[in-house]
Amino acid sequence: MQTADRPGQRLRRAERREQILSAATRAFARAGFAATSLDDLAAEAGVTRVILYRHFESKADLYRAVLRRACDRLAAATGAPGFHAASVEALLAAASEEPAGFRLLFLHAVREPEFRQEMDEFRARSVALAHRHLASLIPDPAWARWASALVPTVAVEAVMAWLDAGQPDQATAAGRIGAAISGVVEAARSSSPESA
Questions:
Q1: In angstroms, rounded to a whole number, what is the distance separating the alpha carbons of residues 110 and 117?
Q2: What is the pTM of this model?
Q3: What 3-state class would DSSP assign to 22?
Q4: 182 and 155 in contact (C-beta within 8 Å)?
Q5: Which of 18, 81, 109, 123 is deepest in the core (most CB within 10 A)?
Q6: Are the CB atoms for 48 and 16 separated by under 8 Å?
Q7: How far apart are CA 48 and CA 66, in angstroms?
Q8: pLDDT tens for each residue of 85-96
């Protein structure tokens, strides 16, 4: 929990907003949207509810801003909308930098009915990105779609397990997650008529 500002210290609006978003990410990641009150959010940020309302119209507005921030940070870290050899390493680095944001996106937000549409759109973009990369590697369109839906899930679940295990050796983890993804791609390729 962050402490309140020292007397006389004022943050610029953008800095205060970032402070609130960071604190809200941690609070929402601990308990989810429904179980986190505005008082919890204000206490985590070291501000009053009045300050929260100066920056966000409602708790839902703040939650959406937190989700957008987490999505934007993840996209920036991984180089989305592209996909390259270092994407898995970048995904691990982003998760390591802000585990609460990663958990919020992939553990809590997907279970929040009020935000389901945003998360479904995020998932669809991830699958489309995977498909753009995998369609040229997997000749059978049905198996390319299968792999494209599975690869983001494998990557996210592998990173989540890595976080839960205490973040052991990031470079080794990237290689192992990459091997798991390659296994999915190879399974899809071996199912293609051309590879039989």
A1: 9
A2: 0.81
A3: helix
A4: no
A5: 109
A6: no
A7: 18
A8: 688 999 999 999
